[in-house]
Amino acid sequence: TILPSGLRVLFIVAVLFFPLPGMRRAALSTLRGRAAPLRRIACVHAMQPSISSTLPAFQEHWPEAELVHLMDDSLSKDVRPNTSMDDRFVSLARYARDGIGCDGVLFTCSAFGAAIEAAKRDVVEIPVLKPNEAMMEEAVQLSSGQSPIAVLSMFQPTLPSIVCEMEALAGHPLNLKTLFVEDAMAALDAGREGECVDIIARAAEAAVSEAREQGEELACVVFAMFSMARAKEATEMLLRQLPGETPTVLTSPDTAVLRMKSLLRQ
């Protein structure tokens, strides 16, 4: 319904100060001159550092998105082999959809692929994304199913999950060289971000060098965690100093944000 300009202003002011569910975003969109409403995206985190890796990706690729950050750091503490986390992830996705009216859910925690799949099956009305799915697709394409891929993580439980997901995506076993980057998370949690970045970059350099000693060239280097994206630039600089072709360094925040944006604009 098109309101006269005077009534439209009164409507916007009323909604902003006395909002009904879903109406505040529409009012803000009108004030900003957008025909379409803002998209509210829930970013669900299991670790605090994931937030600071998520924000730059949205700022670069989708600054108009409205972000809601949900933090449950007990998830990373409670993860155990052969223990289902499905119910907890389904509850988080339902809350994002029903409790705060989100248009999409982006999980940034990489160790819970099966649980996020359960949430995707349950919450079908809106996009629910795993943090690495777009990045994993790109990695599989770069490898052509044959070239080795280095997969680095600073949280051990992430590695078995991402290996299973990448091989399921490819449809066959892959040559994956997994590496747990010890001490990087401890440095980040202690506020020593520069040290964390250096540890990750050095680990990637070692992975490339080790592959070459075995006569192999990596198709790419994959950072399995959102919070590792902070080390991409330093890693690329270090790898360019090595002889030979520099492998691509893949991180998940950029690809995940672009995937969510494309799904909600279809």
Automatic annotation (TrEMBL):
This is Arylsulfatase. It comes from Noctiluca scintillans. It comes from the Eukaryota.
